[in-house]
Each structure stands twice: as C-alpha cells, then as structure tokens.
Amino acid sequence: MDIHFFKESPFTTIISFHKLIESFEQIALSDVDYRSNYAKAILKQIETIPELRTGIQDYSIIKENEALIKNILADLFPTALTQNEIKAVTIPFQNISFNYTERFKKILKNAGDEFYMEIRDFDEHQFYINNCCLILSNYYKQHIDFNKPFFYDIPNEEGIEKHYRILYNADFMEIIPTENAVELSQEDIDQLIDNYNDIELWKSKFPKGSWVLRGFGIVSLFDATTESAISTLKSNLLKPSTSKLDSNDILENIFKSIFGLPNLKVGFIIYNPEEEKFIRPIKFDEQITSFLLHSDQEVDCKNAFFGCSFENLLDKNEPFVISNVKKFIEESPNKNLGEHLLRQGIQSCVFAPVTKDGHLLGVIELVSENPRDLNSVNATKLELVLPYLTDTIDRYNTDMQHQVEAIIQREYTTIHPSVYWKFKKESQNYFQNNNPTKDYIFKEIVFKNVFPLYGQIDIKGSSEHRNDTVRKDLKNQLNTILEIFANQQPNTSLMLLEQRKFELESLRDDLDQPLKADTEQYIQRYIEDEIHPILKNTKDTAINKKLEEEYFESLDEKTGMFYQERKKFDNAMSIINKKLASVLDKKQLEAQQIYPHYYERFKTDGVEHNLYIGASIAPTKPFDIMYLHNLRLWQLQTLCEMELEHHQLKESLPYELDVTSLILVFSSALSIRFRMDEKRFDVDGTYNARYEVVKKRIDKAHIKGSKERITEKEKITIVYSQNSEEAEYLKYIKYLQHKKILEPAIEQFEVEDLQGVSGLRAIRVKVINNITNANAKKITYQDLLDELN
User: Domain GAF: where (predicted)?
Assistant: First the structure.
C-alpha cells in the first residue's frame, strides 16, 4: 500500500467501506442462497473489525486485512479482469492506494523499488483547491469543470516512460462538513471561482481539516502513452522558438514512448530545394543530430551516396525503411549507404519525408541498434506526429527567411533604422490595401526639411600609390623573366629568345613613363600569350628550372601576374578602411542618442558618410536646431578620432599611406527622396542638387589662386559658405584646442570656383597626433591581417 500526503488539506480523510457493507446487508436478506450465504460470511468477518464500517485513520489496519478487503471489493474488482484492468482503491488527488489489480502490480514492479507514483505537474496549491472544488461540486452542487486530465508517468522494465491517464470514481464517498466548516453564500462561491490563484482566499473559506471525506474511491488507468507523447511533442514544437528544444534527448524520449523502443535515436535534416541538398542546420548542431549526414554539413541529394535508394523519399514523398541493414547491404546495389549506417551501429532505420503542399521540407531520421526494431509496420506511427513536424519546419523556414531578409536589409541596403518606420508604414499600407484586380501605387519615400552633414577621410594620393605598386610589380615580373632568359642554354630557338628579350626590355623601359590606361592589360596578355608557353615548353638546366618554378609560384592565382606590391597596398587600404569605418559606426550609435537621424557610410579610397537630421525623420520627437549643432560637433570630434586611429596604424601598415579629412557644411534644409531604381536616398530638387555637385568635386579642389589642394594629411578641412557657419566651427575648434585634440594654428582661405559653384571658404586645422599611451599594446601587421580576415 502506498501512502503519501500533501501537508495541508481541507479534508480529514477517513477510509470506510460502509456503503459496500450496507449493500452486503441487503444481499444477506435476499432469497438467492449462494449470494445470501456469501454476504453473510463476509459480514461475519467484518464484525470483528468495526473500523471497516466506522472508518479507518490508522492505515496499518488496511495492511493487516488485505485479504478481507479484497473480498469486500470483489464485485468491483472482478478476478477475470485483473490481468487486463489497471485499477486500485484510492482517495482522489491523494497518493493513498491499495488493492491493485494484477496488471497494476506488474506495472509498479517493473518501475522499480525506488519509483514514487505521483500525479504529473500537480503541486500542493492545486491539491488544496481541487479538494475545495470537490466540495463545491458535490456538497454545494455547483457546476464546476475542475477535472483537467491527470497523468501518471511510470517507466517500464526497459526504462521507457509510459503515460497513464487517471480516471476517478467517487461513488463510494461522501463529504461531510465539521463544526469548523465555513458556510458559503453564492457570493462567496463566485468570489472563489474568480480567484483560482488566491490560495489564502480558498483556505479562509475552506479551513484546514474543516471537512470530512469518508469512504473510498477507485482509480482506473488507461495507457495513453502515444497520445500523451504526441501532446508533449506538440507542446515542444509549438514553442515560440525551436531553439527552446534544450537537447535531442527531449525528442528521443518522446519518440521512445511512441514506438516503445529503448534504443531509438532521432535525427533530422532540412531539404534545400534551390540547391537540391540535404542540410544539417548549424544553429542546432548541439541539439539535433543527423545520421545520414553525420559529420557533413550538407550533401547533394542526387549524389552516389544516396543513389537510387531515396527515389521514393524524394520523388514520391514516401518513407524509406530498412529493417535489417546487413541484409540491405547484401541485397541492395547501394552498399555505401548501408555501410555508412552500419559504421554508426545502426541496424534498422526509417527515413520519413516531412512535406507540405507536396514540397519536401526535410527528413526525420529514426534509427535503432537492433535489426527489425524499425520496420514498415511501426513506421506508420509517424503519421501521428508528421503534421506537427511539418508545421514546425515550415515555421522554421519562414523564420529563417525573415531573418535572412533582415540581414540583407541590414548589411546590403540603405534602409537605416531611423527611417525604417516609413518604409514599414508604406509596406503595411500595401499589404492591407492590396487588391488582386488593381495595381497598388507605392508612395514615394520623401523626408522634407532635413539638414545634411557630409564628411570623408580619404587616402591621400591613392591613385598615384596604386600606379606605383602596379609599375613595381610589372617591373619585378619582367626582370625575373629576363633573368630566366639570360640563363637559357643555346638552342634552335635562340633567335626567338633574343627577340622576346628585346620586347621585354622595351616594355620595362616603357614603365618609366606615366602608365597608360591599357598598359597593365597589354603586358599581362603579352606575358600569358608569348612568354609563358616558352617557359613551360623549354627544357633547361636544373638551376634555370628552379628559377622557373619560383617564378610560377610567385604568380597570383587570380591575375596570373606578380601581385606582391599591389597586395601590400590593397591590404593597407582595406585595413585603414575597416578600422576607420568601425570607429565611425561605433560613434554613430552614440550620435543617435543626440537625436534620431539618417546615416549612411561608403568605403571607397577612404570612408565617406552622409547624415540627415530633421523633424520629418523622427516625427514623434520635437526637433530643435540645437540638435544639428550637437551633431556637427560630434562629427568634428569623430573625424579627429579617426585621424588618431590612422596615426596609430601607420607604423604597422604593410604600405605607408596618409589620409586627409574633410567636412562640408551646408545650412539650408533640403529634401531627400528614396530612388526606387537605385535603392538609395538622394537629394531632391534642382536647387538641392548644388549640394551634391559640391560633394563630388570638393575634395579635389585647390586653394584659390594656387595649385595646393584644400586637403592636407593629418589635417581636417572644413568647407563652408556663410559667416554664421564660420563662427560656429571656430567655436568648436577653440573647444577642441582647449581639450588638446587640435593644434593652435588655424588656416583660413578661399576655395577655387567649382563648376557652377563659387564663394566657398575653408578652415584647416591639424590634429595633435603625439598622444601616446604607455599601456597600449603595440599593433603588428599580422594582428591587422588577422582582424581583416
């Protein structure tokens, strides 16, 4: 007999068989001799133990009189059904049980001595209130549906958890109030019904031990393992994120319960129809495994590994079943698949397609280490769970698509978060007003009355540096070829070699002149078409052969040319751009706190940025011109930081490059419009186009009346047109000079007239770059390359 109590209950529980005893007394008076004699014999035994009628609170009495109690309950527990029914005497919701049927005894025995039978997800709070609801239902005759499904989870002899639905019969029980019971009005009852979670309220209306529960109940169990396991699976799969499947163990335990196989293992792969590949999602590497892919991340579903074995699965969307892998290897032409499974200890398996609307989404893999554990018969059980798997995988694919679109938007388009709300609003209008019979005309995305800020930090003389590195690489390559030709053995092709040497020397001499647009391509074609065939087909000495091998090893894989100097230049450019862009992006996050504004950045031969600020971009926030001034000061400080970042990089760069910085001040408000054809923002209107013209030409402009560029290395040039702008920026410069960020000297000059634009002026000031940090770690070129890659 199992006896386990919760600490508190509104009931004093008294086990009594008085209702059955009363029925025996009626039978004893009947005219049917065998029934009457049987009842009289039972009643005679009961006389010696009056507690069976009056009530038992000392549960040892039940233990001592098991045989008699079994006879008393014989009509309710027929011997003919004891091997089939799972039934016992109990008190509802309490773990008091005895007089088990033989099948119930066997189930408990297989569970083990340490198993403790308790109702799933049932705590003291629910226990107390359910007992109170029992009183409301039976004594106060309230129609309260409080009996949610209850389950016992009991492992079998193989350790597989079986799930049993609990049904209570309370026909032989009565509920009696004591003097401590609180008489409830309908208002009290309504208050209780509306406050299920207020345990103190329930205890005040049903004090502990204020009612008597007299009699006994009967609990009947039926095996609901499959239904319960499917319900648990559905609950897990319908969670907001499939990442909440903590491990593959959860799925495996559910499928073990459904199939009744202790050695069952579960895997899964996703099908990519665009590439016709099976994929094991990296996101779930530690949660969901795959036995088909095993160590591979993806496999072409039409390759030799799967062969024709998966024809049904791919083309007919039918499960592929192998009940005996060893026999499959002997009989099937696709031995690779069988051997792949056998190496993992798999002896039987089912691979079932997960489909929706006739399209394959993925494959669920069930495998076992025992032959015939999985077969075509029990594979039909998958029909019970595949609908839930289908919805989950379909939701996963949809979520993945949304995330991919979000990444594309974040990484590859110009829709900045500050203006996303307007695109979203227009998209919602399209979605809500979309009519299949009428084309929807998208409204243009325009932001009016916004103030622009433009800045750039540019690689000084990048075109000249690039041409120099090209010239050096070409000269090195030509010299190397000439050295190989100089060491060639005299042979029949000597005249041809002399001619080629002359041509190579002529090309080398031409490189001392300014590079023409087609010089690099001409020399590359000449070397590939005329020189390389000679080097590859000429027999030569061991020394020259080594020179040729070293030459070909020095060629770049993509261009087939020497790329050493250009690689240093390109790496230096990439490192500078990446470092400076990261500084700008990080500082931009802080700038958004000043006032939400549109921001875009471009990497060219340096880093450019556009900012637009105004009330139309953030209509829910009041705009003041103060925010524009704050953003201008932020921009100037950020360019100073980017200059300092470059200065710290210079010593570590593979190719020394200087930078120049420029700010263009424009105080007139303008409009920006999203160009649907180019998928980017641009200024709107003829007058505003003047701003774009200045942006494109200003960095190459000269100081008026001279040949000196307005930009200079390690200095920031601020171009403006109005006196108010000059006064504003001089205040910013004075502040930064006070902070020891800018040097004291200030240059002011006029800018040469540009096409259609005149009257521009400029301020130029040098950034203090002798700021050192004794604790700073020295950056090496390798550190930069590692970060770049």
Answer: 312-373
Question: Structure tokens of 347?
Answer: 């002896």
- pLDDT tens digit string along 439-485? 666 677 888 899 999 999 999 888 888 888 888 888 888 888 888 88
Q: Is the pLDDT of residue 121 over 60?
A: yes
Dihedral, CA of residue 536, residue 499, residue 557 and residue 514, to nearest 10: 170
Q: Could you tell me whether strands 359-368 and 659-665 are parallel, antiparallel, or unpaired per DSSP bridges?
A: unpaired
Contact indicator for 222, 212 with CB cutoff of 8 Å:
no
Work out the pLDDT band at 789, boundaries 50, 70, 90: very low
**Strands 150-155 and 161-169, sheet pairing:** antiparallel
Distances 215 to 53, 133, 142, 476, 760 between C-alpha atoms, Å: 9, 18, 21, 105, 102
Q: Report the C-alpha gap between 672 and 656 in whole angstroms.
A: 38
Residue 105 has pLDDT above 50, yes or no: yes
Q: Phi and psi dihedrals of 17, rounded to 5? A: -110, 25
Return the DSSP state at 528: I
| Residue 509: CB atoms within 10 Å | 10
Residue 354 has pLDDT above 90, yes or no: no
Pairing label, strands 359-368, 598-604: unpaired
244 has pLDDT over 70 = no
Pairing of strands 211-215, 11-15: parallel
Q: What is the pLDDT of residues 370-422, one digit of tens each?
A: 999 999 898 888 888 888 778 777 777 777 777 666 666 665 566 777 877 77
Average pLDDT over residues 170-197: 92
Q: How many residues does this entry show for the chain? A: 789
Torsion of CA 30, 34, 37, 38, to 10 degrees: -110
8 A C-beta contact, residue 603 and residue 663:
no
Determine the Cα–Cα distance for residues 724 and 721; give it in Å rounded to an integer: 9
687 band by pLDDT with thresholds 50, 70 and 90: low
Alpha-carbon gap, residue 216 to 18, rounded angstroms: 10
The CA dihedral of 633, 635, 636, 637, to the nearest 10 degrees, is: 90
The pLDDT, as a whole number, for residue 638 is: 94
Cα–Cα distances in angstroms (integers) from residue 440 to residues 169, 398, 420, 426, 447, in the given order: 64, 25, 20, 11, 21
Better-predicted residue by pLDDT, 498 or 593: 593
Residue type, 63: K
Q: Fill in the amino acid letter for 523.
A: I
User: What's CA 743's distance to the chain center, in Å?
Assistant: 49
Helix (H) or strand (E) holding 682: strand 680-684
Instruction: Give the integer Cα–Cα distance in Å for 187 and 366.
Output: 57
128 touches 209 (CB < 8 A): no
pLDDT of res. 243: 44
Alpha carbons 642 and 647: distance in angstroms, whole number: 9
Cα 198 from Cα 193, distance rounded (Å): 10
Give percent of the chain above pLDDT 90: 37
Asked if pLDDT for residue 145 goes beyond 80, the answer is no
Task: Compute the distance between CA of residue 537 and CA of residue 349 in angstroms, rounded to an integer.
Answer: 58
Give the per-residue pLDDT at 760: 93
Q: What is the rounded distance in angstroms from the CA atom of residue 7 to the CA atom of residue 639?
A: 71
Alpha-carbon distance of 88 to 100, in angstroms, equals 4
CB atoms inside a 10 Å sphere around CB 440: 12
φ, ψ at 130 (rounded to 5°): -65, -40
Cα separation, 573 vs 785, in Å, equals: 12
| Residue 595 scores a pLDDT above 80 | yes
| Rounded mean pLDDT, 8-12 | 92
Three-class secondary structure of residue 384 per DSSP? helix
Task: Give residue 497's Cα distance to chain centre.
Answer: 63
With CA atoms as reference, report the closest residue to 568 among 472, 639, 487: 472
User: Which CA distances in Å does 171 have to 51, 93, 96, 237?
Assistant: 20, 15, 17, 40
How far apart (Å, rounded) are the C-alpha atoms in residues 44 and 302? 82
